[in-house]
Specification:
This protein is of the alpha/beta class and 410 residues long. It contains 13 helices and 17 strands. Strands 6-5-4-7-8-11-10 form a seven-stranded mixed sheet. A six-stranded mixed sheet has the order 14-13-12-15-16-17. A four-stranded antiparallel sheet has the order 1-2-3-9. Keywords: Methyltransferase, Transferase.
Length: 410
């Protein structure tokens, strides 16, 4: 399309970062009754803006269609919950949050995080667009405003006297089709001396470790620190600190404040991270175009493992039904000819089928019943947690496989 424009700076988008072909929406799990009906497939083609270096997909479906009834519940990962407990302990200590403070989380999901502030008697408010997920948070006693976040929602909250001392957004920025509306909303929802923390997968890690499966339609954008700083600065928000995190294959957490506040000095970690990105080549378009060839090589290695294992008569099943797994399986053309089934701890996914591949999802107990030779860990970022939970597979000689950043059997 000649009028394809960057969603942040409005520059023309002409440079391909990676083209993963046609895939269904990664969270559009199928019911038994839908298996004989057609599915919608969309181009999964990531472009990079030559002006601001924002990597992005075109918008084919509205956020309302994707997120109003959502299959992902954050509380089913023990390691993620532990990560959040540690965050709450650190942030409440470092920034002296009390019973007089207000913590607001955007995309608060099932209350996985706010529950820990609540235990400390710190007032909380969640903003969550998916009513089915928000219902679970409300059942935990967490006040939740069911709405998409942006200027309008932030203004409504501010008119009710609800502005944040701490405003949190974890793994939500990528899901936002209108970055200007969302970040301006954060500015409106933040008290004059409040702080924002946001976590998101780091584009540098995505590219350096071939994490192509974290690209899917629900993730409209993919961020480096330099690009996020530009986006925040456009709404008079200053990033004053950054941390590298191990979550989701390598994330960063940014800390921001109103530009006019200036209460917190800019940490040296910000400059160090910007230098790291520059050294990697994130300001050079050739680095982005090279990513595509690396992804193709990863696909060939994944298929080589599957073909060899099946030719040897081995049985393979999946563990997990994450969105990233659906990108990987659909891009690589891996269906039930290779994988008999997958399992997931979330009862909200059990009994459903993966989009595109139609692979059935069962309770994890099925693995002990069928004793497969290989268990492909689709949420590879949780491989330590999952392999520990499922170590009994070694009793019958089973082995784990992770596909990214390279095929590893252990």
């Amino acid at each position: 399309m000649e009028d394809r424009k960057c969603r942040f700076c409005d520059a023309a988008l002409t440079v391909t970062c990676v083209d993963l072909g046609m895939t269904p929406l990664s969270n559009s799990y199928l019911h038994q009754g839908s298996l004989d009906k057609k599915e919608s497939f969309y181009p999964l083609h990531a472009y990079v803006c030559g002006e601001c270096f924002l990597v992005q997909l075109e918008k084919f479906e509205s956020a309302e269609h994707i997120f109003s009834d959502y299959a992902y519940f954050s509380s089913y990962s023990d390691s993620w919950l532990e990560h959040m407990k540690q965050y709450v302990s650190e942030i409440t200590s470092d920034y002296e949050l009390t019973s007089e403070s207000l913590v607001i989380e955007v995309a608060s999901n099932d209350g996985y995080l706010l529950q820990y502030f609540k235990e400390l008697n710190i007032p909380v408010l969640g903003v969550e667009p998916a009513a089915n997920v928000a219902k679970v948070a409300k059942e935990k006693g967490i006040e939740t405003y069911v709405n998409f976040f942006g200027r309008k929602a932030a203004s409504e909250l501010a008119s009710m006297g609800k502005q944040a001392d701490l405003l949190i957004g974890n793994n939500v920025l990528a899901h936002v089709p209108d970055l200007h509306d969302f970040v301006e909303g954060m500015s409106l929802a933040l008290k004059p001396n409040g702080i924002i923390t946001m976590e998101f997968p780091h584009l540098l890690r995505l590219m350096s470790e071939n994490q192509f499966d974290t690209i899917y339609h629900e993730h409209f954008s993919y961020f480096s620190l330099i690009t996020v700083m530009k986006i925040f600065a456009s709404k008079k928000l200053t990033v004053f600190d950054v941390q590298e995190l191990p979550t989701h294959g390598g994330s960063i957490r940014i800390y921001a404040q109103h530009k006019e506040s200036g209460e917190h000095p800019v940490s040296s970690r910000v400059e160090n991270m910007l230098k790291k990105e520059e050294s990697f080549g994130m300001y050079d378009l050739s680095r982005y175009t090279a990513f595509s060839e690396n992804v193709k090589a990863t696909k060939r290695a994944i298929l080589e493992f599957f073909i060899t294992a099946k030719n040897e008569g081995k049985t393979i099943v999946g563990y997990g039904a994450p969105a990233k797994g659906n990108t990987l399986l659909n891009y690589c053309g891996v269906g039930m000819d290779f994988i008999d089934y997958t399992v997931d701890r979330s009862p909200h996914k059990q009994g459903l089928f993966l989009p595109g591949t139609r692979i059935p999802i069962y309770d994890p107990i099925k693995i002990a019943e069928t004793k497969p030779d290989y268990i492909l860990i689709l949420p590879w970022n949780l491989k330590d947690e999952i392999s520990k939970q499922m170590k009994h597979i070694y009793e019958w000689g089973g082995r784990f496989v992770v596909p990214v950043p390279e095929v590893e059997v252990f």
